[in-house]
Specification:
The complex is a heterodimer. Chain A is mainly beta. In chain A, about 0% of the residues lie in helices and about 50% in strands. In chain A, a hairpin with a 7-residue loop joins β9 and β10 (about 100-105). Chain A is globular, with a radius of gyration of 13 Å. By secondary structure, chain B is an all-beta fold. Chain B contains no helices and eleven strands. In chain B, the strands form two sheets. In chain B, strands 2, 4, 5, 9, 10 and 11 form a six-stranded mixed β-sheet that branches. In chain B, β9 and β10 (about 100) form a beta hairpin. Classes of the chains: A mainly beta, B mainly beta.
Chain lengths: ~110, ~110
């Protein structure tokens, strides 16, 4: 089955620790995205990548880092510099230049 | 950058009712998206439309490009329609990146 997977679904970390969220897609999409969702707010773009080995900051990139070494994978690291990391994180992918995006199931990160 | 406004924020309906959710945006677009987010968090794309109307089962999406407005209608609503419905449009000048409304939380009571 083609799709996007994110793991784990729930993640707990202590304050001050870096944590990496996984996102894998087998749709052969060039573009991949990371969003953050907070209660009562729309999805906000953290980082996006239109092609392997290239990525761009979104609206709220501070405290986050990404890599895009393979077309299928776009991991997100939430660093200790992120002031309020507890949130729901969604990964998406699309054909480059096309606005229709396909979403993963999300990871709910809680920092204790 | 485009701005997206959705209304209402919350909507409670009785099973069988006709539902309308509205979306307005500020900058001309090439396409508008309606998405559905279930309580578990996963998001699925319902419609992508650039003009007129699209229908899929009990769901109908319309767009008025001149008025920069779109509506999502659900006919004969059912409790399984309970979800958050999200409108999204491309960033001004960008085809790939999207900006999202805050969503409309729909609850359909049996």
């Amino acid at each position: 089955d083609g799709g996007i997977t994110q793991s784990p679904k729930y993640l707990f970390r202590k304050e001050g620790q870096n944590v990496t969220l996984s996102c894998e897609q087998n749709l052969n999409h060039d573009a991949m995205y990371w969003y953050r969702q907070d209660p009562g707010q729309g999805l906000r773009l953290i980082y996006y990548s239109q092609i392997v080995n290239d990525f761009q900051k979104g609206d709220i990139a501070e405290g986050y880092s990404v890599s895009r070494e393979k077309k299928e994978s776009f991991p997100l690291t939430v660093t200790s510099a992120q002031k309020n990391p507890t949130a729901f994180y969604l990964c998406a992918s699309s054909i480059a230049g096309i606005s229709e995006q396909f979403f993963g199931p999300g990871t709910r990160l809680t920092v204790l | 950058k485009n701005e997206v406004e959705q209304s209402p924020q919350n909507l409670t309906a009785q099973e069988g009712e006709f539902i309308t959710i509205n979306c307005s945006y500020s900058v001309g677009i090439s396409a508008l998206h309606w998405l559905q987010q279930h309580p578990g968090g996963g998001i699925v794309s319902l419609f992508m439309l650039s003009s007129g109307k699209k229908k899929h089962g009990r769901l109908i999406a319309t767009i008025n490009i001149q008025e920069k407005h779109s509506s999502l209608h659900i006919t004969a609503s059912h409790p399984r329609d309970s979800a958050v419905y999200i409108c999204a449009v491309p960033y001004g000048g960008s085809q790939g990146n999207l900006i999202f409304g805050k969503g409309t939380k729909l609850s359909v009571k049996p």
